[in-house]
Specification:
The protein is of the alpha/beta class. The protein contains eleven helices and twelve strands. The longest helix has 16 residues. The protein binds pyridoxal-5'-phosphate (PLP).
């Protein structure tokens, strides 16, 4: 069996705390920052990218740099290795020759949250956990419920009371307990922590749990593989809690260290948020290192209704170090984007995917993205759970 080079957990800040043993349960660093999984990257250089051609078409094809130990079996539903579609008709409309859509709607439970939960539940099971809990805007809860079912773990999902009905029903479908909480995802997080503290539930909240990032980072491995070991010029990514941005930024480093892509010119990362909830955009524009919480967040894109992200400083660092930008778009433009991805490419896009398209349109018209640039739009989820957002 393939060997992983996974070694330890380390503070993302870093604050000087000692490294941690991943065979024990850990959430945040003692300083409050997220923990990151680390690998023996020097030893991992014996891993050749040519070995990938014989591997199963899911994200565990990158097992050498995934958080598993020898003898452990991943909890998988076939997540990852989603299509990278060359969107020629949509590209022509925008004046882009090389527009690609990474279509994450084709993951189990209809969003890229499957990747994070596959990794998190794999570790949770290995750690002997029996009950997992998560606060969610919808998709993370659905994915956790499915992977917990597959692993035989009890699942507790905490959702804002005004969540769209399909997200609630899908949790029930996978046998999870659902609690509806007044307020936003931050309130759901508080309720989950209070309910689970004395019962020993294992919390898989975004970035409070170290392994969802490891699942999400595989999007960058796939991009490198699917683009034949060259980075695109731009990655345009709808950002809520930021696991995807932080995970991909971490993966660029790992992939360069493996020697799979030449170091130097990484993609520019564009963080896309909603005008009704844009804490990262505001912090980016103010030159701040971290974001202040957004009051009264409101947007049709549930995954972007995250008023405060615990990894804010990591998201901002990725955007800045990559030479990228952060941009907020109105809800109406997201819905228009859904209809364009659907009508011109046959792609089922969540409002978050529509938001990425709206951001690209703005950056093209501002002359920031140019017609020959290679642009990857992340369609992070499918449209079906958001049909109410569409005109009837
Ligand atoms: C959760 C979610 C996002 C935001 O993802 P992060 O990586 O946590 O920033 C974007 N789109 C959809 C569809 C989501 O479910």
């Amino acid at each position: 069996m393939t060997h992983s080079f996974f070694t330890h957990l380390e503070c993302s800040r870093p604050c000087g705390a000692p490294i941690l043993n991943p065979r024990e349960r850990h959430h945040l660093c003692r300083c409050g920052a997220p923990l990151l999984a680390r690998y023996d990257l020097d030893a991992a250089r014996i891993w050749s990218r040519h070995s990938l051609k014989d591997r199963a078409p899911n994200m565990w094809r990158y097992r050498e740099l995934m958080p598993v130990f020898d003898g452990e079996v991943p909890v998988t539903l076939g997540e990852g290795l989603t299509p990278l579609v060359h969107a020629t008709r949509l590209g022509a409309k925008l004046g882009l020759e090389r527009l690609y859509v990474k279509d994450e709607s084709l993951n189990p439970t209809n969003s890229f949250k499957a990747r994070g939960q596959s990794a998190a539940i794999t570790r949770a099971r290995a750690l002997g956990v029996t009950t997992v809990s998560v606060p969610s805007a919808g998709n993370a809860g659905n994915a956790m419920a499915a992977y917990a079912a597959c692993a035989g773990l009890a699942a507790k999902v905490f959702l804002p009371r005004d969540v769209k009905t399909p997200f609630v029903r899908e949790c029930v479908l996978y046998g999870a307990d659902v609690t509806l909480v007044d307020g936003f995802i931050t309130d759901a997080a508080r309720a989950a922590a209070e309910a689970g503290a004395s019962l020993g539930w294992y919390d898989v909240s975004t970035l409070k749990e170290p392994y969802r990032i490891e699942g999400k980072k595989t999007m960058a491995y796939e991009l490198a593989e699917q683009m034949e070991w060259e980075w695109p010029d731009w990655i345009v990514y709808p950002t809520g809690g930021g696991t995807g941005m932080v995970g991909m930024w971490k993966a660029f480093d790992e992939i360069e260290r493996l020697g799979w892509v030449a170091p130097g010119r990484r993609p520019r990362m564009v963080s896309v948020q909603a005008e009704g909830c844009a804490p990262i955009v505001r912090a980016f524009e103010n030159g701040a290192e971290s974001a202040t919480p957004w009051e009264n967040p409101a947007t049709v894109a549930d995954g972007l209704r995250v008023p405060r992200a615990i990894g804010d400083f990591l998201i901002l660092r990725a955007v800045r170090e990559s030479g990228g930008t952060a941009i907020a778009v109105p809800d109406a433009a997201m819905v228009e984007g859904m209809l364009e991805l659907g009508g011109l490419e046959g792609i089922s896009a969540a409002p978050e995917g529509g938001a990425a398209l709206a951001a690209i349109r703005k950056l093209v018209s501002d002359g920031v993205i140019r017609s020959r640039d290679r642009v990857v739009l992340f369609n992070t989820g499918g449209a079906l759970k958001y049909l109410d957002a569409l005109p009837s």
